Amino acid sequence: MENGKTAASAEPEGLRDVFHTDCAARQVLDHVTSRWGVWVLIRLGERPLRFYELRDRIEGISEKMLSQTLRNLVQDDLVWRTVEPTAPPTVTYGLTPSGTGLGERLAALLDWIESTFDESGEPADPSSVADAVSAVGA
User: Fold this and answer.
1) What is the C-alpha to C-alpha distance for residues 33 and 106, in angstroms, rounded to an integer?
2) Fewest CB within a 10 Å sphere: which of 67, 105, 121, 125?
3) CA distances to 10, 11, 70, 93, 94 from 85, in Å
4) In this structure, are residues 34 and 72 in contact, taking their beta carbons and an 8 Å threshold?
5) Are 58 and 39 in contact (CB under 8 A)?
6) What is the pTM assigned to this prediction?
């Protein structure tokens, strides 16, 4: 045992912390993978949007949940927010460089899901999914 570490805790330093509840990266991941975080990031990846435009482009989200999700993503520096001094104020949201990188990856994941599964959630080509599962188990 060296520095209080046992063989069982010999995980790479960068990975181990993510599994602790007080890890900041874990909190960001919770915000991104929240019920609405992924959809907000993908929509804002298309272009900056005003609050109501964003609400109207994400079916089913309430104003309260959109506000909460945006607040968290702004705090995590994934989304920027500008307020124009008009009456009433015009608030616009867009992706920061970090948010853009993440949004691109999420959009790619969505593309993969859409090409792999049909509208009922079943594999579009069951043999390709079976091949992928076999390859992982090999």
Assistant:
1) 10
2) 121
3) 54, 51, 20, 15, 18
4) yes
5) yes
6) 0.71
